[in-house]
Structure formats: structure tokens, C-alpha cells
Design brief:
This protein is of the alpha/beta class. The protein contains eleven helices and ten strands. The N and C termini lie far apart (about 40 Å).
Length: about 350
């Protein structure tokens, strides 16, 4: 077996090659679906992945370990000037692992941002979004707290969601510990983390609690019963296929639980009025792209200030690849800038927007 450090070096060397070379090495021509062209670096990763076994062929624990290794190597150089600290949140079941990011230029008026990672409720950890969290802290000039919620199948629905809700409330109530205004917090995440973030905003509304300052939903799963065109068009997309989504849900959702449950599919909520201002981001090559866009449209229709962006050439999971995919890194930085704009009050009158 090759040394992991050597494998990472070779991967980064290959990914740094010019776009025409990457295209030639990964099929010879550009990948175009639905009028969109896939980024050459993502195309190269997708081509390489075809040579290996599918995630769905592994037990969850093995898939989790393999994914952790891959995402850890894809973070790149962490932003300078950001202090990182691992700590435990005192939760009812024991310590809930978390990681804080404090930029040297932190704005004392900016809310603390609670980040929830991707992974279908089955994979992912504090390293999954490590690079993005540092970028977010630096560019949005806010403290970020990333949560290592418990995973299925060892801890099925709604355990990870409840962990995340508890962690949000704890972080909000202890915001001063992170140099942020007391009682103020934003929330966000990607994929399942986006699903959790959307649901938590609805949960807080039902509990009569104040909404987060902002919700950031990046390629979120908002309706796990979805049969929209993107579910078919991108059924075999890398790294998220519809087969992988089914595998996640088989492990995450207990038998007998309806997929229409509002704490699984927030799109099924009767009303989204009164929720936190939102930034909703989707990827062009993603089975979830339609439901993310539809949720943004519903938020806007409900009167929620909402900004929508689609990164047409990128694929699901791009927040996890800032160290390997140039356009993913640029998107991470742009999204962090949008969060900063929202903190500065520039989202209040924004319409839903679409950008390449």
C-alpha cells in the first residue's frame, strides 16, 4: 500500500496540471450535462473514482474512515491568522466534540457561526469542512464553531440533528466565550449539514425562540422524497449519486419512519414564513440541485430575504475540496464573503439570484 503522504503529493501534482491535460487524462473531452460543463479538476476526480469500489459496497464504519482520509487531504493550507481550538460541548450524553475558529481580525459585533458538516448523517467529522471553516472565519470576520454530531447507523435519526440543535443553542447562549455578542448566532452547513440547518430554523420557530441571524444552506437536502429532474439528470454524478443517497438514508432513517417527516424533509413544512435570512447555494452537477433551488424559491415567496447562487461547473461536496479544486476554493471564498455581506445588512432586500 502506498504511503498516504506520497499519495497526497501525487494527487496534488496531477490536479495542478493544465485543464486540457486533465481533460485528456479523464476521458479526452469535457463532461457536459444539461448545458453545463464540469470543472476539469472535478472531472479528473470523478474519472479516478471510477477505478475504485463504490462507497455503498463498504460497511458504514469503513466508508467513514475512507472518507475522512480523503477529505482531510483535500483541505489545502489552512488560512493564516485563524486560531483553531478543539473542545467539548457539555451535552446530556457526554462531551460533544467541537472545533472553534477565531480570526485575528474578528469583528466583535459579528455573530458566532455554527457550522454543520456534510455526510448524509453517516460520514463526516471535524476535518470534513476544516478548510472552509477557516476561510469563513477569516473572510466573514466571525468566530466559527464546527460540530462533530453523532452519526448513523450507531446513532440514527434524529440523534445527529438533536445534537446539532443542542450545540446551536449552547453556542448561542455562550457566544461571549468566542468573542461574539451574547445570544447571537448564525447557522449553516452543506448537504446534510444544510438539511440540519434548515430544520433547526424551523424547530426554533416552533419553539418560539429567536431565529439565527442567518442560515447558510449549501447544496442542502430539503426533501428526501424528491423526484425532481436533477435526481435523474445527475443520478451518477461524482461524488454524490442517487445510489449513495439511498445508502445514506437506509442507515440514517429508522425503519418505519416516513421520509415526509418534517425533521427529515423541511420542504414539506406548510409555511417557511418568519425564518432567518438565507443564503442558499447549489452545485450544477448534483442530484440535490433542484431541491436546493426550490427551497430558496419557497423562502423568497414566504417573505424571507434570500440570496441564491448556483455554481454551475462544480459538483456536490465542493466545500470539502478547497485544497484540490481551484474553483471550489474560489467558491468557498465567495460564499464566505456573502456571509460577511449578510452580517453587514446587505442581504435584507436581496432577491433570489442565479450566478454561474
Amino acid at each position: 500500500m502506498a504511503n498516504p503522504a506520497v499519495q497526497r503529493f501525487i494527487t496534488k501534482l496531477v490536479m495542478a496540471m493544465p485543464d486540457p491535460v486533465l481533460r485528456a487524462m479523464s476521458g479526452g473531452s469535457a463532461v457536459e450535462v444539461g448545458g453545463r460543463r464540469l470543472d476539469p479538476q472535478f472531472q479528473m476526480m470523478a474519472h479516478a473514482a471510477k477505478a475504485g469500489p463504490k462507497m455503498t459496497s463498504f460497511p458504514p464504519a469503513v466508508a467513514r474512515a475512507a472518507a475522512a482520509m480523503g477529505f482531510k487531504s483535500a483541505q489545502g493550507v489552512i488560512e493564516p491568522g485563524v486560531a483553531v481550538e478543539d473542545f467539548d460541548i457539555p451535552a446530556p450524553h457526554g462531551g460533544l466534540k467541537a472545533r472553534s475558529y477565531r480570526p485575528a481580525n474578528q469583528d466583535p459585533d459579528a455573530p458566532v457561526f455554527v457550522y454543520l458538516h456534510m455526510g448524509g448523517g453517516v460520514i463526516g467529522d471535524l476535518d470534513t469542512g476544516h478548510g472552509f471553516c477557516a476561510i469563513l472565519a477569516k473572510r466573514a470576520r466571525c468566530a466559527v464553531v464546527s460540530i462533530d454530531y453523532r452519526l448513523a447507523p450507531e446513532h440514527p435519526f434524529p440523534t445527529g440533528l438533536d445534537d446539532s440543535l443542542f450545540a446551536y443553542r449552547w453556542t448561542r447562549d455562550n457566544a461571549a466565550r468566542f468573542g461574539a455578542p451574547a445570544g447571537k448566532a448564525a447557522i449553516g452547513g452543506d448537504s446534510m449539514g444544510g438539511n440540519f440547518s434548515a430544520i433547526i430554523c424551523n424547530d426554533l420557530k416552533k419553539a418560539g425562540e429567536a431565529q439565527p441571524v442567518l442560515q447558510l444552506l449549501v447544496y442542502p437536502a430539503t426533501d428526501i422524497t424528491s423526484e425532481t429532474p436533477s435526481m435523474t439528470l445527475h443520478a451518477e454524478a461524482f461524488p454524490l449519486t442517487t445510489e449513495t443517497m439511498t445508502w445514506f438514508m437506509l442507515h440514517y432513517v429508522p425503519e418505519g419512519t416516513a421520509h415526509t417527516h418534517l425533521r427529515l424533509s423541511p420542504m414539506k413544512e406548510e409555511s417557511l414564513a418568519g425564518l432567518a435570512p438565507a443564503i442558499v447555494v447549489t452545485a450544477g452537477f448534483d442530484p440535490l440541485s433542484d431541491q436546493g433551488e426550490a427551497y430558496a424559491d419557497r423562502l423568497k415567496t414566504a417573505g424571507v430575504p434570500t440570496l441564491y447562487r448556483c455554481y454551475d461547473s462544480l459538483a456536490h461536496g465542493f466545500l470539502g475540496f478547497p485544497g484540490l479544486v481551484k474553483k471550489a476554493d474560489a467558491a468557498c471564498r465567495e460564499i464566505a464573503g456573502l456571509v460577511r455581506d449578510a452580517f453587514d445588512g446587505k442581504l435584507a432586500s436581496a432577491d433570489v439570484q442565479r450566478a454561474a
